[in-house]
């Protein structure tokens, strides 16, 4: 595979003004992610990983520095291009699932396809197919509140993959799930990563993620502390799960 | 360079917008019922004030002297009437804006999510505009019916069948249209502002807001 960078950040800083207090959530992040990689951004809460997630996803603007998605500088995009990027290039998965509560599983999955201009019938067919892929073939017409947390997150995974994005961004995807369900979601993400060659970037402090990640970015105090390849990580994941 | 890699075509067909807004109302039945009730009550109040003034005026100018004499209209009653009407308009504006503000702000996360999926600001505004339009029409119509019927009934009890003889149909109809317009305009205005603000937020901020 060619060295094809799907995400590149250069000196990204993000400063929040909370009243008179200035908080530097990110203090200059440089990272590169190759197409098809499975990346985990690890760090304690408050380390800035969610902020970084928002930067990479074009959900927030850096105070300084640049973010390139597929070699396009996100800061240069107008509102239409940004919406297009979020719709077609990036799929999002959140800790709190963030399904639209009034829509069925299928409607949630088809919404991004409708935005992308797909016909209703095609979107429906593809939506059903995606829900079958994540193991929810029998629950397409259920509303989010009729589904368990794990099932809701599966819908979110299907929705994130709706427009065959280049990147799936997952912010603490297992944070609200129990151990077993969390594992299932992780292995689902890994399967999608392998089968569809979609790049997965996950902000997490779930050590179960280490096992499937190609590389791990450790974040502390708004900086990248170290980057590890999976092969170099010595932690036996099985031992830590009990904590 | 951006042209090659990034498109800008994002769509939301109108029929889909209508369906989404309508479903969103139908499913959140309890919440939209309260919003509609808020609109209904204020418009019923406005309509009853207007209808009462209209019926009394008709009785004075065209009713039998005996009944007209029962209604004392002097300068101070006239002034009180005008005061009541402006007050009811004010109550309308505040009440409806508040209802809409509430129903939009409690859905910031949903708005943020929509934007993550690629919704343009205008989609979000359109969805809320349609929803508030449905609620405005429903609430105003019900309020008008209740206000008009209520006042007519009370007048019938107070002044007897004379009311029907002089019933100011045309004038009432004008007031009905006026109340309908007031209800719909206030409802949509009350929804547009918070929806516009929410739609313009960066998604990260919109999703953080609710917590």
Summarize the structure.
Chain A has 243 residues and is α/β, with parallel strands linked by helices. Helices cover 32% and strands 28% of the residues of chain A.
Fold and architecture overview:
The complex is a heterodimer of chains A (243) and B (211). Chain A has 243 residues and is an alpha/beta fold. Chain A has one domain (36-62, 76-240): P-loop containing nucleotide triphosphate hydrolases (Rossmann fold), CATH 3.40.50. Chain A is 32% helix and 28% strand. Chain A has seven helices and ten strands. Chain A has helices at residues 49-56, 79-89, 105-115, 120-133, 149-160, 179-196, 237-240, and strands spanning 5-18, 21-34, 38-42, 64-69, 72-73, 90-93, 167-171, 199-204, 215-220, 223-229. Chain A has a six-stranded mixed β-sheet with strand order 6-7-8-3-9-10, with helices on both faces. A four-stranded antiparallel β-sheet of chain A has the order 2-1-4-5, covered by helices on one side. In chain A, helix 3 packs parallel to helix 5 (149-160) and helix 5 packs parallel to helix 6 (179-196). Chain A is globular and about 45 Å long. Chain A starts with a strand and ends with a helix. The model of chain A is unreliable at 238-243 (pLDDT under 50). Chain B is an all-alpha fold. Chain B has one domain (24-62, 73-203). Chain B has helices at 2-5, 14-27, 29-62, 65-70, 75-105, 108-116, 121-159, 162-165, 169-200, 203-209. In chain B, helix 6 packs antiparallel against helix 10. The longest helix of chain B has 39 residues, at 121-159. The model of chain B has no long low-confidence stretch (mean pLDDT 84). Chains A and B meet through helix 2 and helix 3 of A and helix 2, helix 6 and helix 10 of B.
């Amino acid at each position: 595979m060619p060295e094809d960078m799907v995400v590149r950040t250069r000196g990204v800083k993000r400063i929040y003004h909370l009243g008179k207090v200035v908080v530097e959530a990110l203090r200059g992040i440089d990272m590169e992610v190759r197409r098809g990689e499975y990346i985990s951004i690890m760090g304690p809460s408050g380390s800035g990983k969610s902020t970084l997630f928002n930067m990479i996803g074009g959900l927030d603007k850096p105070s300084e520095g640049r973010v390139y998605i597929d070699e396009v500088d996100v800061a240069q995009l107008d509102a239409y291009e940004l919406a297009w990027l979020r719709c077609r290039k990036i799929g999002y998965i959140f800790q709190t699932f963030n399904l639209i509560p009034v829509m069925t599983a299928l409607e949630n999955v088809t919404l991004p396809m409708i935005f992308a201009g797909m016909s209703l019938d095609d979107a429906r067919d593809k939506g059903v197919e995606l829900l079958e892929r994540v193991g929810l073939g029998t629950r397409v017409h259920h509303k989010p509140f009729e589904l368990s947390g794990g099932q809701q997150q599966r819908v979110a995974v299907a929705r994130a993959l709706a427009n065959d994005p280049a990147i799936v961004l997952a912010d603490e995807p297992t944070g609200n799930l129990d151990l077993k369900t969390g594992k299932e979601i992780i292995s689902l993400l890994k399967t999608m990563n392998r089968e569809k060659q979609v790049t997965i970037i996950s902000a997490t402090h779930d050590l179960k993620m280490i096992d499937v990640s190609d590389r791990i970015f450790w974040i502390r105090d708004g900086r990248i502390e170290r980057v590890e390849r999976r092969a170099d990580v010595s932690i036996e994941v099985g031992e830590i799960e009990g904590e | 360079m951006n042209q090659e890699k990034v498109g800008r075509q994002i769509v939301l067909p109108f029929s889909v917008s209508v369906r989404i807004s309508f479903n969103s109302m139908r499913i959140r039945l309890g919440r939209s019922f309260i919003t509609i009730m808020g609109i209904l009550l204020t418009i019923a109040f406005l309509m009853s004030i207007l209808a009462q003034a209209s019926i009394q005026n008709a009785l004075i100018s065209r009713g039998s002297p005996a009944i007209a004499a029962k209604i004392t209209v002097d300068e101070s009653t006239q002034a009180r009437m005008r005061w009541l009407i402006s007050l009811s308009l004010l109550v309308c504006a505040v009440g409806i804006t508040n209802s809409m503000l509430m129903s939009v702000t409690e859905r910031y996360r949903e708005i943020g999510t929509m934007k993550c999926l690629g919704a343009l600001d205008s989609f979000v505004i359109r969805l809320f505009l349609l929803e508030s339009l449905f609620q405005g029409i429903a609430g105003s119509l019900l309020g008008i019916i209740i206000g008009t019927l209520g006042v007519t009934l009370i007048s019938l009890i107070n002044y007897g069948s004379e009311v029907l003889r002089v019933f100011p149909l045309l004038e009432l109809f004008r007031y009905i249209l006026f109340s309908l317009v007031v209800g719909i305009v206030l409802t949509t205005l009350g929804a547009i502002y918070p929806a516009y603000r929410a739609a313009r937020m960066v998604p990260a901020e919109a999703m953080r807001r609710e917590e």
